[in-house]
Amino acid sequence: MSWGHAVSTDLVHWKHLPIALECEVDSNGNVLEMFFSGSAVVDVNNTSGFAIPVGKDRRGNVIYSQPMVAIYTSNYPTAHTQSNGVVIREGQQSQSIAFSNDDGLTWTQYEGNPVIESPPPAYADQYNQFRDPFVFWHAPSSKWIMLASLAMKQILLIYSSDDLKNWTLESQFGTYNARFGQWECPSMFPLYVDGNTGAEKWVILMGINPGGVITGSGTQTIIGSFNGTTFVADPVDVSDPTQIPAGATVFQDFESTSSTFEELGWTATGDFVGLGPQEASTVDVWNIMGYNGKGVMTTYLFGDIAKGTITSPKFTVTKNYISFLIAGGYYPYNPATAGTADDNQVSISLVVGGQVVHSQTGTDTESLVWRSWNVAGWVGKEAYLVVTDVNTGPFAHLHVDDIIFSDTPKDEANWNDLGPDYYAAATYNGLPTSERIVIGWMNNWAYAQNIPTSPWRSAMSVPRKLALKTINKKVRVVQQPVSSLSSLYTSTLYSRKFSTLQSGYTKVYVPSPYNARMKVTLRFTRGTGTKFGIILRSNATNTQETVIGYDFLAQSVFVDRFKSGDNSFVDWKPNPYPGYFIANLPTNSADAITLTVLLDWSSVEVFDGLGQIAITSQIFPLDGSAQVKLFSEGGSTRSVSVSINGMKSAW
Q1: Per-residue DSSP letters for 16-85?
Q2: 139 CB contacts (<8 Å, ≥6 apart)?
Q3: Contact 312/253 with Cβ under 8 angstroms?
Q4: Which end of the chain has a smaller Cβ tally under 10 Å, C or N?
Q5: What pTM does this model have?
Q6: SS3 breakdown of the chain: % helix, strand, coil, rounded to 5?
């Protein structure tokens, strides 16, 4: 693993340069050092002493360079002794620096590396899970600040330095919100609230893997304050997994472990007849965590061979959200196969009027996490829940605990992106506070090494501008594609308005090659229908398509990639690739909703008008799948405006 290098003047058009920091190998072919993630700064005050003379001014005074300093994790696969005498253990991870005096074209590793050899003594056993330094200049304290992750402990260490070489541990942060998985690639930065330069808050952005919002990788944010030594999370931005929202009703907590499901008013079929909730500590799976109390509903009763359903008593929806704790294998409900011989779901679903309107599967972990459904569109309707396990494959089980009804969602974390393919997001130093730019890795460790692309493997997201905006009285991190992306847009290829778009499908003609790479802007208002959106990369028989839209009853944006193309590249079970991904976006019936969709051959990135939600997803359709269609489901959609621009190549 090495550091690549590319430069751009607009964040859109990039020029590749030679590798900046290349993996080091000894004469026998043993890898001595790999260069893991990190960050870079410009040392404008030459605190490091790395500057060199570059000339003289008109008065004969020496002009010095402003060195660029890279701070990275040295990952040492092989035990050895460095030339400076530092003894390295096999698998050790340490923080090192390199400097450049020619704007990053060439780099020199600091002879005193590593600058932080090991984590603090209290975490000495984490010497091989200590990585991803993010460094920035903190002007109020006139110091450099570093965040480094103790990945397996879900802790961020905060260090300070005067010179980028000598570091002092100041504090630590964690563990909060999404906490079952490795914390990686953190960054911390200030943002203005609603653009007010007098109202500043700090944001921590970090990756978690596994334990993402879908399965595998994910990215979360936490808003708080930073005083130069310590980050303190805002209480409203931290989720206590043991607490439920005020005014919530507990529908079922599964604490009656001596009762059968039937005695609790539930109905079981198949192998679950006559059984009931289990004490979580007795469930014979590896390291079940995250449950409340002692009892859980589980389908892991005879290993993964148990099959059947467990159905709740019927109830009337009276509150806006249903939330629950859930863990288990990733086998999502697929409406195309449910109830057929191809059905392999392991899920909990909400049924209203005989139709599944929400469904959730596990995230391929044994750690129960909170998930919420917006059910405001069904208030007053009769409904029931059903746990379905018709799968005997690996990890084919589900754990459920604490089903609650409330008027606010019970969320596990503040997810920066609600799709499966946005991880290791990195922000730029050196820009004004109002110009915080982030780029994410558009992939997921659950299948990253197998995606069917050539000659590359993985792409980056479009650069996004981050901000803090007050929405419904809560400060939130919002994001939108950078404005310079407009340099790629063609003139408008399709533009049409519908006062009422009737139920059904409306074909949209977009010329090749832009039918596979485009920017779509949708504006619409609820009519009599239940869903509205656009279908991209579709073939003539509709057996291949990516469906993007808004569910008016579930009040959520969705991306459906069950039929988006090739998913056979995953040759193990459960297959973490197919799925239906939702982002909660509450609206009123008269609200005008805006969605922006960026399609780039094998990816979609979706944003709402305020930037409060994003969904990033890879797709792998055949080249011939390039039809575009609008749809309105269950009735009409009002005040529809559609605008499509092609996307020119950035290369």
Answers
A1: EEEEEE--EE-TTS-EEEEEEEEEEEE-TT-TTS---EEEE-TTSPEEE---EEEEEEEEESS-EE-TTS
A2: none
A3: no
A4: C
A5: 0.97
A6: 5, 50, 45
**Can you give 414-457 as a three-state secondary structure string?**
EECCCCCCCEEEEECCCCCCCCEEEEEEECCCCCHHHCCCCCCC
Tell me the one-letter amino acid at 573.
K
Closest CA to 428 of 217, 185, 136: 136
Helix H segments across 139-271?
none
Cα 59 → chain centroid: 54
For residue 313, what is the DSSP state? P
Find, among 331, 284, 289, the residue nearest to 179 by Cα: 289
Partners of 559 in beta bridges: 548, 581
Does residue 292 contact residue 326 with C-beta atoms inside 8 Å? no
The two three-digit tokens of residue 126, written as one number: 């984490």
Structural tokens at position 38: 């990190």
Return the residue matching tokens 């915080």. 436
H helix count then E strand count, the chain: 0, 49
> What is the H or E stretch that residue 631 is in?
strand 627-633
Name the one residue in this structure whose structure tokens are 């808003």: 223
Cβ atoms of residues 628 and 508 within 8 Å: yes
- pLDDT class of 586 with cuts at 50, 70, 90: very high
Closest CA to 252 of 367, 404, 109, 381: 404
CA 265 to chain centroid: 37
Residue written as tokens 């656009």? 534
Asked if residues 389 and 307 have their Cβ atoms less than 8 Å apart, the reply is yes
The pLDDT tens digits for 526-546 are 999 999 999 999 999 999 999
